[in-house]
Amino acid sequence: MNKKNLPVFFIASSLVISPLFAANIVPKFPFASSKKSSANLKENSGFKIEKSANDYIDFSGTWVGKCDDSDEPVTVVIKNNDDIFTWDGDQFKIGSLETRSNANEENTSFSHTLLEWNSNHSRLLFTSSFFNYHHTQEGKGKDFGYNYGFIILKDNQLRMKFDFHSSEGNFTSICTYDKQ
User: Fold this and answer.
1) What is the pLDDT of residues 52-80, one digit of tens each?
2) Which positions carry the signal peptide feature in this UniProt record (predicted)?
3) What is the DSSP code string of 5-36?
């Protein structure tokens, strides 16, 4: 799976997950399992934050970078305001739980995704749960799990950290992007 699409998968969780993804889980976004861990995620990332004059972080722009599990640089386009977040054309309402599903001849999937600001609007938090059923000529398989993470700005860089927990395995991904 193209590493550029991994953050989109997590954010949107509406992309069709191929058997390749099930076999090679790659990082990008969140789901807090308890109020305590959610509060820690919201306030204790260890990064100093930069806020825009709009009282929320503006991640808008074209960003080029990579994740710690890949040497391939990728380009992403982000647009956001206080209420809407768009990642490479996929738009989400911040603070609204979204349910998406998709079915075709090779894959059936659904997901629940929530994007929300932390208490001072300095980081955007992601939470997602998903289920995928792959039914191809090569075989059948199921993958389910949850993800959580955040996006912040630090030193004029876009930084993301995501924890993935699925029936195929667990991993963490940290990504850093520079604005173009």
Assistant:
1) 446 889 999 999 999 998 889 999 999 99
2) 1-22
3) HHHHHHHH--SPPPHHHHHS--------SSHH
